[in-house]
Model the fold of this input.
Amino acid sequence: MSTTAATADTDSAPVPPKWLARHVAFMEHVAEVCSSPGGRSDLRTGQTRRGLTEPWLMLPHLQSRIPRGLPERKTAYLAAAAMFAAHAPSPASTTAQAASVYDARRGNLGWSLARAVRSGLLSQDTATELLQLMARQRRLMGLLHHLQPLVDRLAAEQVPLSWPHLLRDLTRWTRYRTEVADQWMSSHYDPADTTEDTAEEHTA
Done:
């Protein structure tokens, strides 16, 4: 009886698409690191530019989970971990196991901004200006300069965010900036549609 129930629970758990699976796995590891006060504190050091360029406290927790590749990809993984850690629940305030970071109902950043507009947190004009501003950032560090305070605001106000989607988009920014920005725009103006072009899955 218990075995059958356990199997049913496993079968009902949301399974991410293959093109997002590695990003889900990484962010779930980040959530696990954040379940300890020391781990959460170490990952939060990446909230500054210096913390990302000198990630001495972050790497012991994350190095083995970051795929090898261009330096910008490593920065993308570190930045996503730091932004998540900045809003992770305090380990001292809860004994419950962290829920999966994957939610099939959540889309990319444009999808989240649409919900921020619906809730009254942002006006439509402000959201559009933010999307345009970020789309113009050719370098990842330039994007993060504008993205980090925005994500901080959304997370603080409990606007739904998909951390795996955000991580994937950050890893693709350097080579596929226009495509990522277009996906954010499309999802913002059609937030019910969370589908994405997966032709570049191998790049993430």
The longest helix spans residues 163-189. The chain has a mean pLDDT of 87. The radius of gyration is 17 Å.
